[in-house]
Write a structure and sequence with these properties.
By secondary structure, this protein is α+β, with helices and mostly antiparallel strands. It has one domain. The protein has twelve helices and nine strands. Strands 1, 2, 3, 4, 5, 6, 7, 8 and 9 form a nine-stranded antiparallel beta sheet that branches. A hairpin with a 2-residue loop joins strand 2 and strand 3. Helix 2 packs across helix 8 and helix 3 runs antiparallel to helix 5. It is globular and about 80 Å long. The N and C termini lie far apart (about 100 Å). About 5% of the residues have low confidence.
């Protein structure tokens, strides 16, 4: 067959394969469209978490809160997913510094408000939760502009999700929990030093992950460390993707809830290799990490300041507060260069401006990050929790008075 004959066949019959080639693109565009409509009809609540004067709990209490929030995991059938745009909505756990004042917020769909409040009160009985106006809409729509400068980024992990970061347990003295260095101490120190006209928005967007999926990936890593051979599995091609879509549709029409399952061949166990003490420690930390509930998470940092108050040294100070969670043999955080507003070479100024505008819009709407990570309940409690009484920061907003129960013999009218 000559080249001309081959090109002639492609020209005359190539259109037959066009739907298969374009299906993945069409699927993603359609999902984005219906999900956008779905989110626009969701009612959101912005809750301010007011911290008690005396908090004796360690972040372990907040870990229990996150474990309870894992119950928001929901599923959608074929119609709900592809026509209604129903999907798992995130909760945003937020810390905001504004001119030295530090406040804690939770932004959640209205349907989750009661669950969020009950989980907080179950661990922090003296806390207060008030619904407030969304602080993110108090600034102009066109930031950055002549009045305000902006910098921001999204944090990703340095290694695979299953490797844990340095959690709050590493900040505790083994003898007594009272000898405890709060992991948030460096962050609140930076936020407490913000001058008038400076703001920092720190957002942790979370939604429950499928534990079976991310734990399976963690198990593969553990097997690899132990020297076990695992079969290489190829990705799903376009034909398989179309076939799976059609099976899901037929299953929904027939009222079946079971999903198409691929047959798994029994794995042959490879030989175990001798591990060094350091590798055993890594393996133990990895296995403990995947034993807890996981969340798909996104961490966004936005620094906004009036042009005359913009302090460039605040940026490395903010990034430095996350270095304490990093270890060389396990995991850590780093900025995502794809969204950070520092670029090189062509159209530098305009490209940086567009990235800043995109970060500002995403922060106000609480859009999920470009690249999500998986954090378990212990890791989330490390980076977001109610600061303990050991953390003495004058600008940290706390409740002025403690609530007490009324006397038992108080007469009623």
């Amino acid at each position: 067959m000559t080249l001309f004959e081959f090109l002639s066949i492609v020209y005359n019959w190539g259109w037959i394969f066009l739907p298969l080639i374009l299906f993945p693109v069409w699927k993603e565009l359609w999902l984005a469209y219906v999900r956008k409509i779905y989110v626009e009809n969701v009612e959101w609540a912005t809750l301010e978490l007011k911290i008690p004067q005396a908090v004796e709990q360690t972040p372990k209490a907040m870990e229990q809160v996150f474990a309870g929030l894992h119950s928001i995991k929901s599923f959608a059938n074929f119609k709900e997913k592809w026509w209604d745009g129903k999907h798992q909505l995130p909760i945003s756990m937020e810390i905001v510094g504004n001119a030295g004042a530090i406040r804690f917020f939770i932004r959640a769909p209205r349907v989750y408000q009661e669950l969020v409040e009950s989980q907080i009160y179950s661990q922090y009985k003296d806390a207060e939760i008030d619904e407030v106006e969304d602080y993110a809409w108090s600034l102009p729509d066109d930031v950055p502009n002549d009045q305000y400068g902006l910098w921001g980024t999204e944090l990703i992990l340095t290694k695979e999700d299953a490797y844990p970061i340095r959690t709050y347990r590493f900040f505790e003295e083994p003898i007594s929990e009272k000898k405890f260095i709060d992991p948030l101490s460096s962050l609140v120190e930076v936020l407490g030093r913000l001058a008038a006209g400076e703001q920092v928005w720190l957002q942790y967007l979370i939604r429950p992950a499928r534990d079976d999926r991310w734990q399976k990936e963690g198990r593969k890593l553990a097997d690899k460390l132990m020297g076990k051979e695992t079969p290489v599995k190829g990705g799903e091609n376009a034909i398989e993707e179309v076939f799976r879509f059609l099976v899901d549709m037929v299953s929904w029409i027939w009222g079946e809830t079971s999903q198409l399952k691929k047959e798994e061949k029994p794995k042959e166990q490879g030989g175990m290799k001798e591990l060094s003490p350091g590798m055993k420690e890594v393996l133990g930390a990895l296995e403990e990490s995947i034993s807890k509930h996981g969340f798909e998470a996104g961490i966004r940092i936005v620094y906004i300041a009036k042009t005359d108050a913009f302090a460039i040294h605040t940026i490395p100070a903010l990034l430095g507060t996350f270095k304490q969670f990093s270890t060389y043999n396990l995991n850590g955080f780093k900025p995502n260069s794809i969204v950070s507003p520092s670029v090189d070479y062509f159209f530098k100024k305009s490209r940086e401006y567009l990235r800043k505008r995109s970060l500002y819009r995403a922060a106000r709407l609480r859009l999920f990050v470009r690249k999500q990570v998986i954090l378990n309940t212990e890791e989330l409690a490390t980076v977001y929790h109610i600061p303990s009484i050991m953390l003495e920061v004058p600008t940290l907003t706390r409740i002025a008075a403690k609530k007490v129960e009324p006397p038992a013999g108080l007469p009623s009218i």
